[in-house]
Write a structure and sequence with these properties.
Chain lengths: 359, 291
């Protein structure tokens, strides 16, 4: 297909599935997204959010119920998978068990009728790229999980696809290898200068790898933004919860000037930041991340007294569960604590996010 | 605690005697009759030495000819049964309503038994049966339709009784192949035919050769339908009829045993050939990577 493409465009893509009872359920609805050449996009969400459906729609393994997909000016959602020419890395790798590493990687080229010597050359350079030289004649069953993963990547990239699709490719690897492979996949992405669309349920993975993150929930897009935006300013409470804002407390709005809001609950006053419009609501949900708390200096605003209840030691810092007048909160602090310690916590106003939703 | 009880019994452990009853049953039910057959096959009724029965078999055209007659039935029956079961099982590989209905329909001939199937076939395919009447009634074929009491009658019966068996085996092998593999091949540019040819078929070879071996052994031992639907005096005088005649018409158990052993040897030869063919192919798990 067209390798010099500039843009992959999803226009209100949706997919419905029939249920056993005869009704239909939208696994994905209204996904609109422009992906530029060279971009790394992560589709992030809990299982069942529609991210894999979106990927299968892109690959052509699932047909669309509505919307369209365009590669520059070519409409591609009407093409079968074998004519889209996207490279896909499956969660279980889907390596052909009866073919050697060389034949697995060369399969796509063989299907394209590439000459034998040309196949050999390109397979070798793809294997060099994923650093798997010397394993050409092995069967997939003779490789470790990490090596199989590299074969799957080599097989997807050797056809020089305009877009590479990855469906939770690291979820079967152990923690250490997973972190190594993140960097590896980023490196390969940069070298190829194509678009990568990466499905994951792991926030850290999405934050560390992607240029832009598409956060999804029950089939619909919740937020599209850079890792910094999604992490720092989740658009709604669902995204906030998913991105690790573990403390969600109802507050009353006392005063609002643009984004700055004064909040109150049980005689505790906090200054916070309104996300989106609060619609003049009095009751708002306030989300605070455990990592954004710190020990308060004397007389500091946005502070609250707390008693340590339990703690989980985490090396550089500890995750504490503390009792406060706002109820139990999770905070992550460096230093040594013991259950029963009395502390005073502070959180900056720009890290207190108010949403026009009920907690 | 549990680790101690899981340790392997040391060699020479008395518990190994527990295998004795099983060995005795095997000896009594399988090994002894087999050895007995081999021994009496080398003791010809009319004398003549160790190999007399075998040389008689291979020098008498009415005897060794049964080998060809049987092979001419068993080989096409095996090829039809296995060959037909591949596309049918492939079309029904996803667990669906159609798969359940077809599977149920096909299990019925297995449960009916050869004699009942033969009786039904005589009514259906016989000279005045429904099938010839249908062909002639609709002017589809005007010559005499002869599908019973000849080669074709036996072949059809072998397909009716053997196909469901081959189909069920093939279906279980096909549904054991991870469908993601075909999807992966699709994203790499393989159309439906190449997905079948390059992914399903090679992964299916071990299973198909097993199905072919079992189908062949079953068809090669054909006996009731060769008599009921065939022409047991000539064109469908299969090897099991020759053995039956030797044993129960001439009361020559030595000759009958010799024929039975030739029959078993030919079956073994073909099965070994099939398995040798299978070894040329990949035969590991048909799933991808680590689950």
């Amino acid at each position: 297909m067209n390798h010099s493409f500039q843009q992959l465009r999803l226009d209100a893509v949706g997919r419905k599935f029939d249920t056993a009872s005869g009704s239909s359920v939208a696994a994905l609805s209204g996904l609109s997204l422009d992906i530029r050449r060279g971009e790394f996009i992560a589709l992030l969400g809990p299982s069942g959010c529609g991210k894999s459906t979106a990927l299968n729609c892109l690959a052509g393994l699932t047909s669309l119920s509505e919307g369209s997909i365009w590669l520059d000016d070519t409409r591609i959602d009407v093409l079968p998978p074998e004519r889209r020419g996207f490279g896909m890395v499956f969660q279980n790798y889907a390596l052909f068990p009866h073919m050697s590493v060389r034949d697995n990687v060369g399969f796509g080229l063989r299907m394209r009728g590439v000459r034998k010597d040309e196949i050999a050359r390109r397979v070798q350079s793809a294997l060099n790229l994923v650093q798997l030289e010397g394993h050409e004649n092995k069967l997939p069953g003779q490789l470790s999980g990490g090596q199989q993963q590299r074969v799957a990547i080599a097989r997807a990239i050797v056809i020089e696809p305009p877009v590479i699709l990855m469906d939770e490719p690291l979820s079967n690897l152990d923690a250490k290898l997973r972190i190594e492979m993140r960097a590896e996949i980023r490196r390969i992405h940069r070298q190829l200068e194509r678009a990568t669309i990466y499905v994951t349920h792991d926030q850290d993975e999405a934050l560390s790898m992607a240029d832009r993150i598409v956060v999804m929930r029950t089939g619909s897009v919740q937020q599209i933004g850079t890792p910094r935006e999604v992490y720092g300013r989740p658009r709604n409470l669902h995204v906030a919860r998913f991105m690790g804002y573990r403390n969600v407390v109802d507050f009353r709005v006392v005063r609002q000037v643009d984004e700055d809001v004064s909040l109150e609950r049980s005689q505790i006053q906090f200054n916070g930041t309104a996300i989106g419009t609060l619609n003049g609501r009095q009751e708002v949900a306030v989300a605070m991340r455990p990592d954004d708390f710190q020990i308060a200096a004397a007389g500091q605003a946005n502070s609250i007294d707390a008693v340590v209840r339990t703690l989980e030691f985490g090396g550089r810092d500890s995750l504490l569960s503390v009792a406060t007048d706002l109820g139990d909160l999770y905070v992550r602090l460096p230093g040594a604590f013991a259950p029963g310690d009395r502390i005073r916590l502070h959180i900056p106003a720009d890290r207190v996010l108010a949403y026009a939703e009920a907690a | 605690m549990s680790a101690a009880s899981l340790t392997v019994a040391p060699t020479g452990d008395r518990r190994s005697w527990l295998v004795a009853p099983a060995v005795l049953v095997l000896l009594a039910l399988f090994i002894y009759p087999f050895i007995y057959g081999v021994v009496i096959s080398t003791q010809p009724l009319e004398g003549g030495g160790f190999w007399a029965n075998y040389s008689h078999f291979f020098t008498t055209p009415s005897q060794w000819g049964t080998l060809w007659v049987t092979l001419k039935l068993a080989v096409p029956a095996t090829l039809i049964n296995v060959g037909l079961s591949v596309p049918v099982a492939f079309a029904l590989r996803r667990n669906s309503r159609a798969q359940r209905i077809v599977t149920t329909l096909l299990v019925i001939p297995i449960t009916l038994g050869t004699v009942l199937v033969a009786d039904g076939m005589l009514t259906f395919y016989g000279p005045a049966g429904w099938f010839p009447q249908f062909l002639q009634g609709f002017h589809l074929y005007m010559d005499e339709v002869r599908l019973t009491h000849n080669f074709w009658g036996v072949l059809i019966s072998l397909v009716i009784s053997g196909f469901p068996f081959a189909f069920l085996l093939t279906l279980s092998y096909i549904s054991g192949i991870d469908p993601t593999l075909a999807r992966a091949a699709g994203t790499l540019g393989a159309g439906p035919w190449n997905q079948f040819r390059l992914i399903y078929l090679p992964l299916l070879v071990p299973g198909l050769s097993m199905a072919a071996a079992l189908s062949f052994v079953q068809a090669f031992a054909v006996f009731p339908s060769a008599i009921l639907l065939g022409a047991p005096a000539g064109p469908t005088r299969v090897i099991s009829i020759a053995a039956y005649e030797a044993a129960f018409e001439q009361y020559d158990y030595g000759m009958a045993s010799a024929i039975a052993i030739v029959m078993g040897f030919v079956q073994l030869l073909i099965v070994c050939a099939i398995f040798a063919f299978r070894r040329a192919f990949y035969s590991g798990p048909a799933t991808s990577g680590k689950g």
